[in-house]
C-alpha cells in the first residue's frame, strides 16, 4: 500500500459541494493530468468543455434529471468524444480519412480515450483534496446538451464531471468481489459459482444500505440492476451518435 493506492481504493462519489470555485491553476492541473492519460495511437480523440456560466450549469442540471450538484460545484467539466479535429487534419494533409473516422473502431477509440482522460482528471482532482461525481445524466437529452454547448459534427458529449470541495462525504460503496471480475487465463463460466458470488455480494450491499439509511433501505445489487435494466432508457442513442457522423461503418 502507498499513498496513490490508498487514494484509488478510497474513492466515493460526492454529491454535495461547498460554494467555492476551483482556481484557474487547479482547473489547468486537472486538464493537464487528463491529457497525460494513455491514448490509442496518440489519436487524442476527446475534448473537454469547462462550464462556468451558471445559467448553462442550471440548464445542464435540468437536462441531467434535476441533479443539483450539476449546478452547484466548484467546476463542471463535460468530456466529449471528438473526431472533428481528425477530419480537419485530413483536409490539412489532403488525405481521405472520412471512412476511418466514421468506423466503429475509431468510435470505440474515441470513447476509450475520453474515459481514460476523464479518470485521470478524477484522480488528479481527488489528489488535490477535491471530490468528484460523474454525470451520465447529460445523455438523457443529448440534442439539447449539444445545442447548449455548441458541439459540432463528430463531437459527442459523453458525461459530465462535477468537481469541488466536499460539503458532505458518503460512505465507500462496496464493489463486486475480486473473484467475480478477475479471470485468469480464460473467462470462467460457472453459473453456480457466479450466482453464489452474487448472492454473497447482495448480502454485503443490503447490509451497507441498512447501515447507511438506518434500516430504511435494504435492497440488493441484483434487484437494483434488474429494476434499472428492465426500463428502456436513452434508446435514441444509436441514431443520435450516427447523426454526429460517428459509428457509421
End-to-end distance, in Å?
45 Å
* Principal-axes shape call: globular
Lateral strand order in the biggest sheet: 1-2-4-3
| Average pLDDT score | 96
Name the helicity range: 40-55%
Structural class of the helix and strand makeup?
A: alpha+beta
Order of helices and strands: HHEHHEHHHEHEHHHH
Family: Belongs to the flavin oxidoreductase frp family.
InterPro entries: Flavin_OxRdtase_Frp, Nitroreductase, Nitroreductase-like
Keywords: Flavoprotein, FMN, NADP, Oxidoreductase
Domain Nitroreductase: 9-165
Summarize the structure.
By secondary structure, the protein is of the alpha+beta class.
What does this structure look like?
By secondary structure, this protein is an alpha+beta fold. Helix content is 49%, strand content 12%. It contains twelve helices and four strands. It has a four-stranded antiparallel beta sheet, sandwiched between helices. Helix 2 crosses helix 7 and helix 3 runs antiparallel to helix 8. It is globular and about 60 Å long. The termini are far apart. The mean pLDDT is 96.
Brief descriptors of the model:
four-stranded antiparallel sheet, FMN reductase (NADPH) activity, Flavin_OxRdtase_Frp, alpha+beta, 49% helix, Nitroreductase
Helices and strands in order:
Layout: H1 3-9, H2 24-35, E1 46-51, H3 54-63, H4 68-71, E2 75-82, H5 84-92, H6 98-101, H7 104-127, E3 131-135, H8 142-149, E4 155-164, H9 178-181, H10 191-213, H11 221-229, H12 237-243
Antiparallel strand pairs: 1-2, 2-4, 3-4
